[in-house]
Design goal:
The protein is of the alpha+beta class and 153 residues long. The protein has one domain (17-150): Hotdog Thioesterase (Thiol Ester Dehydrase, Chain A). It has 3 helices and 7 strands. It has helices at 41-55, 60-65, 139-150; strands at 17-24, 68-69, 72-79, 88-96, 102-111, 116-125, 127-128. The strands form 2 sheets. Strands 1-4-5-6-3 form a 5-stranded antiparallel beta sheet, covered by helices on one side.
Length: 153
């Protein structure tokens, strides 16, 4: 399977920030056929987004404390192979560099055999508390981007 590039590499940009979450399929996540219901995968993506935010000190509540909202604007999911009840799996999250006021995440789910079962991405836009779209990242996020670029996170 060819690797898709959801977010093209920007010349001079730092490598994506990554974090992996280990999970096991719970009974409530499978459908009547015994496979994970397709609507559960955004929640798996969320597990990785939250873990990345916690790992790098910039989670949802950190944005909110600075008066910034980060709603999802776009999400894409490719289902390659089913997961079943009690299957162990890994969710790899990759936070891709962008100088825009947005958060670009890529997700790769692998089963116990390291086979890619699901992949996709999400894009979150940054808004102020009055829901105005930000065009430029707020100062605290610009500082985060600078530390990321310098490799000091």
């Amino acid at each position: 399977m060819a690797k898709k590039r959801w977010f093209p590499r920007v010349s001079g940009a730092p490598e994506p920030l990554t974090f992996s979450v280990e999970r096991q399929v719970r009974f409530e996540e499978v459908d009547a056929v015994g496979i994970v219901w397709h609507g559960r995968y955004p929640s798996y993506f969320e597990d990785a987004r939250v873990a990345l935010g916690a790992q790098y000190g910039l989670g949802y509540m950190d944005f909110y404390a600075q008066g910034i909202l980060a709603p999802i604007k776009k999400m894409h999911i490719d289902y390659h192979w089913p997961l079943r009840f009690e299957d162990p799996f890994t969710i790899e999250g990759r936070w891709h560099w962008s100088e825009a006021a947005r958060l670009n995440y890529e997700f790769i789910l692998r089963n116990a055999e390291q086979q890619i079962v699901t992949s996709g991405y999400s894009v979150q836009m940054l808004l102020d508390l009055e829901h105005n779209l930000l065009v430029v990242p707020p100062p605290f996020y610009q500082e985060f981007l600078q530390r990321w670029k310098e490799g000091t996170l």
